[in-house]
Hints:
One of its GO terms (biological process) is lipid metabolic process. This is Fungal lipase-type domain-containing protein. It comes from Mycobacterium simulans. This protein is of the alpha/beta class. It has a single domain, classed as 3-Layer(aba) Sandwich (Rossmann fold). Helices cover about 50% and strands about 20% of the residues. It contains 13 helices and 11 strands. It has helices spanning about 5-20, 30, 35, 40-45, 50-65, 95-100, 100-110, 135-140, 160-180, 195-210, 230-240, 275-280, 285-295; strands at about 80-85, 110-120, 125-130, 145-150, 155-160, 185-190, 215-220, 225-230, 240-245, 260, 265-270. Strand 4 and strand 5 (about 155-160) form a beta hairpin. The radius of gyration is 18 Å and the shape is globular.
Amino acid sequence: MSGDRSRGMARRDFLTSAALASGIGVVAPWANPLIGNANAVGPAQESGFDPKFALEVTLPLALAAYAVADCNTVPLPPGFVQTAVIKVDVGAGSTTAERHPEVTALAFNALIFGMMGRSAATRTAFVAFRGTVTFDDVITDIGVLPEPYAELNKFGCVHSGFQTVYRLVRPSIVNHLAVACEGCDRLLVIGHSLGAALAVLAAPDIFLNMQPNIQPSLTTFAGPTAGLGDFAKAFNNMIKSCFRVVNFLDLVPYVPPWPYVHVGSPICVDSGGSIDPLWRHSLYAYQAGLEKLNKSTV
């Protein structure tokens, strides 16, 4: 069996087993009408979510966050340019390794977690985080130990594995955000899978602690729950625009289970096609779902 096929089967088994172990893997998509009924377009229409913009800008930027790990120059939406790569800070690893050695090792193995850039024409900057491209990364998604959000006092508790990865890439964002935002008055923060959790953790920190202190607009795809209810409440009070796109039968948005709670507004899509967990979780499935949603709202 090839290495790629073996890893794919391991990821599929892991996603399914993790969701089933949490007690929601099969039932949740049908039990929750808001997420289970992926054909409903009400949330997108009522919330101001623009599926055309998501197809043309935010989803391509999420794809670019993966591609940049393999090459220095990646295709971006028209008008956008890359200004920096989001990398793990080697120096920060000495601190996180003591408390979370396995997660730290996984982050160092991945090393690159996305990219930053801007469109001068639209005065829009972006921070895009990549997600789970290997089975090892998925393990990081399923850790369930909460700890206080490190960047702001009394802001609730978050998933310790996600926060460990964020702490490792945070210096890269601090060092390069101002350049990415030059001449911009809008900031998009985007992520898929693990990258969606990183986007959620980054948003309050970017807004209050990093120049030029632009309130970010979030769009996440296939994101797990990143924090407990106290964090979700504080986040929603601060960040006014946060859309989490959820594909029907994608299992990752259901982990970690309660007491972890989602932030933002859910946007339901249905990619159709295979019910294979890997397909339902992929950005290409989300692209198919957004295309259907876009046609239904025209």
